[in-house]
Amino acid sequence: MSRESGLHVKQRGGTMNVTAWNNGKHHPSGAGYGLKIKRSDRDHYFSKSWEMIFMKLPSAKREIEINIKKDGFWNSCPHLITKEIGRWLIDNGYIPWPKGNPPKFELIQIHDNHFELYGK
Question: Which residues, other chains included, contact 86 with Cβ-Cβ below 8 Å and sequence gap of 6+?
């Protein structure tokens, strides 16, 4: 089964403002970090039929996979969470950030469930 099969396109080429997020635990592995998106952006650019999205981080050679088939993502916590994002934040000097002032980025929808992250 192709990783794009069964997808429903919501929007193409849109840009979202996102912020770095942490669950309060600072693991050197990158676990517990992610990106917080607005609920309105989640509803506009993401489809509940998708299990995963694919995101290219700046300077990365390949896309990472992020599970969005979670109740939290579609209810109270619209966060894209994966240790790869955390490692990228750590490796690029974004962590630690000043209290109340997490780094901000732009997340661009390339097509379907494929996105690319850019610094601001």
Answer: 27, 29, 30, 31, 32, 33, 34, 95
Q: pLDDT for 29-39, tens place per residue?
A: 999 999 999 99
**Total number of domains constituting the chain:** 1
- Report yes or no on 10 lying in a domain: no
- The identity of residue 80, as a single letter, is L
Helix (H) or strand (E) holding 71: helix 71-74
Contacts for 43 with CB less than 8 Å, ≥ 6 apart: none
pLDDT in tens, 80-117: 999 999 999 999 999 999 999 999 999 999 999 999 99
Does residue 8 form part of some domain? no
Q: Which domain holds residue 110?
A: 15-119
Residue 86 lies in a domain: yes
